[in-house]
Structure formats: structure tokens, C-alpha cells
Design a protein that fits this description.
The chain has about 650 residues and is an alpha+beta fold. The chain has three domains: about 110 residues; about 240 residues, START domain (Alpha-D-Glucose-1,6-Bisphosphate, Chain A, domain 4, 2-Layer Sandwich); about 220 residues, START domain (Alpha-D-Glucose-1,6-Bisphosphate, Chain A, domain 4, 2-Layer Sandwich), CATH 3.30.530.20. Helix content is about 35%, strand content about 25%. It contains 17 helices and 20 strands. The chain has a ten-stranded antiparallel β-sheet, sandwiched between helices. The chain is globular, with a radius of gyration of 30 Å.
Length: about 650
Amino acid sequence: MASRLFKESPHPDEKQRQLLSKQLGLAPRQVKFWFQNRRTQIKAIQERHENSLLKTEMEKLREENKAMREQINKACCPNCGTATTSQDAAVTTDEQQLKIENARLKTEVEKLRAALGKYPPGTASPSCSTGKDQDSRSSLDFLNGIFGLKKSRVMEIVNEAMEELITMATAGEPLWIRSVETGREILNYDEYVKELSAKDSTNNVRPKRSIEASRETGVVFVDLPRLLQCFTDVSKWKETFPCLISKAATVDVISDGEDPNRNGAVQLMFAELQMLTPMVPTREVYFVRYCKQLSAEQWAIVDVSIDQVEDNIDASLVKCRKRPSGCIIEDKSNGHCKVIWVEHLECQKATVHTMYRSIINSGLAFGARHWMATLQLQCERLVFFMATNVPTKDSTGVATLAGRKSILKLAQRMTCSFCHAIGASSFHTWTKVSSKTGEDIRITSRKNLNDPGEPLGLILCAVSSIWLPVSPYVLFDFLRDEARRDEWDVMFKGGQTQSIANLSKGQDRGNAVTIQTIKSKENSTWIIQDSCTNAYESMVVHAPVDITGMQSVMTGCDSSNIAILPSGFSILPDGLESRPLVITSRQDEKSTEAGSLLTIAFQILTSTSTTAKPTVESVDSVNTLISCTLRNIKTSLQCEDG
């Protein structure tokens, strides 16, 4: 009935929708969405058909063009271009006609290219894939003008950005001034505008934006080729920064670069940047990334947003753009590199929850310190994963190196899955509810149909973020301590926890993977826990595991098919710099630690049926779980009034 009405009127008015909803027993809103979806489907079909016709026409024009070129070559001398037959006048006339026709065909081809340009760059059309001839070249070459600028202009922009990055990374005062209170470097923006921003004439036409600039220097224990791969391979980039990147893609490859390290590589990229909480919106940004070797020991990776590219993609995604940002990498030749990281963002001002206002407005949340700390943590994790001479005290409970690697690999997959599940990414649709103790809880659900790495069925995820008047270090040590687990874990209240294995994955004792058994009156449960801490944030991620499956992993078996559903905690400093409570000569009363931003997340399998839907009972269950856990944490840390 709806299909029949759609043929007659694809845009029914309110009265028609009301009548149809009564006849079909559906809500008017459902009818409205059905017609919207149907119109979208019809439009997609029409566009696929149109695109197919355009592609066919383009191929036809190419063949005609080719034939005409061959005919001209046969009729003309290859050296001087004059006719070689006795019919000079006739051939000259034919040649002129061919040239006119050729010009017309070129115009037609350009029109068709412009028509094809309506599809997102770097993607095949909905109805067909690109041919080998097109694949062998950058689409910036093939569809010249799709972004409103040529490859030569892109290279000019990225080279200018590279010069600015080098200046930003190496300059001292007056461009960068070190804060006496915090020790952090602060960009002198007036100096920046005077020295580096003179060419940027577009600032005055943009809406009012906030500027975030930060610089951090550090050493990472990883060899240069592997480090460069973290930036040139988008999948490696996501793996290296799972807490910061919820989505990333290479939209287009402008230049592949040379040698295995891809010197000179230029690629248009998209990223969705997140915090580990659904309370802070993600930042979507398009930018061009350029990798260049500066000297025998130095490389640079620069990211810069290009206005013409963004304007053609989607204006709504330009709420955040990158001014020249990136890092200078210096190879120290003994398995480690020095990295200077510069992060320079320009974002539209947005309303931020008061709890996160300080950490975001200070530039810490998406700043260089966060990126650097995460990079150092992941590189250190990789070193411990590859190590063959791990001291016994750092690898207890696992007899073989293969077993150690399998456990560390499983733990990393678990933590990446946790980061992916709890952010504000458009992957999720969050519903806000109130907990039994007054905190806000966000709830979302998803269905796992065929991923063996998670339980199959309907999965419910509940997340809550709160401020606690406790040092991040104290909170982290409390939550990762297996001896104190029964103080907060309502699932195993009163159970006896015992460590089965403890594997170090970093120099800080807080960076470790543990396997615990929790014995209660009824049964025994195994838990795998991954604890991570760096200069910016800490995480404690845990999940129950099948005992038989975990035992096989401990012997070195592949862990990729072990179904695991992580829950856990993310701990951040609140962004408020420490201030003395009182002025006194007594050492223990001179200062106070700032508070913590704690995000707690639980994931539960509510049904093994892939057609099931969330129920009131399942939502109430995770609500109770979070409420009780938060109450227990506050009680144990004596901050009920926080």
C-alpha cells in the first residue's frame, strides 16, 4: 500500500501519512521515515544509473579520441606534421576538422569528469569500480580539479606547511614561552601571527574559532622504519593511538613516495578524534599528510588542512582544521628516536560540559602531550612484546615466550575494543539516563552478528563520567590492585582474588597484564586485566574469559578467536593545575593534588539472539551495576561528598 502511494506521491503530506499509519498500524513517525528512506534509495539507484551512463560515454569518447589521434599520425609526417599524400588540401581540411572535433570531445570529457566529481574523492562510484588505468594514477591527476586545485598547488602548500612545522618545532623564545607554574610551553600567538601567519588571508572570513597550540619533546624506543610506518599506514596509525582516533581513512593518495620509508608520500586523510567518554563530542578533520626526509638522521611528518579540499568535501566537517602540525623525528641509531611533536588546531568554539572544560580549553585533551605520551606507551608496549630476554620477575605465571606474546596480543585487542566502545563516535547512538545515585549514564547497544572476537548477540554498553577529588595516581593504583578488587567490584563482592599470571609491558609497574581467578562460593571465574598509564591518562580494562580458552592462549595458541567483552575505567587529570591549600613551612601541607575525571564503562551480553532488542530490565541492570560500583569507589576512597 505504501509502495503504491509512493508511486503516486513520493512526498505525502501530513494527512496522507496519518491515514496510511492507521491503515498499516504503524506510527506516523515510522511512515515518515519509510518514505524518507525510500526516496533515498530511489535517488541512489538513479545516481548509479547516471554514473554508469557517464562512464560508458567517457570510455566511448576516449576510444574516438584515440582513433582520431592515430588517423592524424598516419596522415602526417611525424617530423614536421605536414601531409604525406598528394591530396594535401583534402587532408589538411580533414586534419582541421579532426582538431575541431578533438577540442569538442575534450570539452565533453571535462564536463563528464566534473559530473563524476560529485562522488566523494578516493571512492569508486556506487555502480562500478575504477579501471586499472585510473587506479595506476592519483585521482588528483585523473580528475584534475575535483578539489578545486591542482597537484602542483597541493605540493606547494605542503612544502610551505613543512617549513612552518620545522620553525614551530625548533624555535625558542619569543615564539614559545615556558610557563613558570606548569612547565608547559605556551605559544606566543602575537609572535606567531607576525612571523608565520602573514600568508593566511582566510582567517578573517571564518567564524570565530579557538586556537590550540602545544609542543612536546620525548624519546620513543622504536626503530625509525617502524615509527614512520605508524604515520604513513593509516591502519597502523589507528592501532598506535586507539584512545585518540575513533575513525581514520586515507581518502586519496597524491604521491606514494619513494623507498620503503615512503619519502615524499602525500595523502589526503580523514580522522575522527575522540576522548574516552561519550560526554565530549568528537572532532572530525580532513588534512593532507606529507612525509619527508630532511637529512640522513631527520624526518618530518606534517599535517595541514587545505581549505579548497574541505570546501568540496563537506562544509559541515570543517569545524576543526589543522594548521601545520606533526613531528620531527631524529633517528638515534640505537633503537630509539627523538620526537618533537607540534599540535596546532583551529576549532569552532563549542559548549563543553563543565567537568571537561578545563582539560579541553587548556589544550591538554587533544594536545601534543597526549599524542606523545600515547606514542611512547605504545612503542614501549611493542618493545616488551618483541623482547626475548624478559626477566622472570616481569613475566610470572607463563612458561613460554609464545604464551606471553599471545596474552599481550589479546590484552591489546581488548583495550582497543574498549576505546572503540566508549567514545562519542558516530559509530554509536547514546541515550542518556539517570543513575540511582544521580550521575548521568549514557547507554548504547549493538549487535554482533559474526565477529568471533566478541560474544555473538545483543551487547549493551553503559558509560558514566564523574569528577572525584582524588589524585589520578591514587585512583589508578586503587582500581588496578587485585587485593582491593572486592571493594568496588559488585560482580564479585566477597570473592577471593588470586593472581595467576602477571606480565610487565612497560617500565612503569602500572603497565602490566594480569590474569586473575576470583573464587566465590558458587564457582571460579578468570579475569584478564590490562593496566596502562602514561603522563596523560591511565586505563584499567578487564573482561571475564573462558578458562579453557585462556589456558590455551597461555601456552601460545592464537588468541584472535577468543570472544572477549571488555569493561573498565579511564582516568584523566581534571586539567586544574595544583594550587597550595595554605602557605606553610610544613612539607605535607604545602600543596594538594588536583582531582580526577573518571569514566566507568560496563558491557554486557543481554541476549544471544541477533534479533533481540534492549529491554527495560537489561537497561536497569547496567544502571544498577554502574551506580553500585561508583558508590563503592567513593566509599573506599572516602569521597562520598565529591
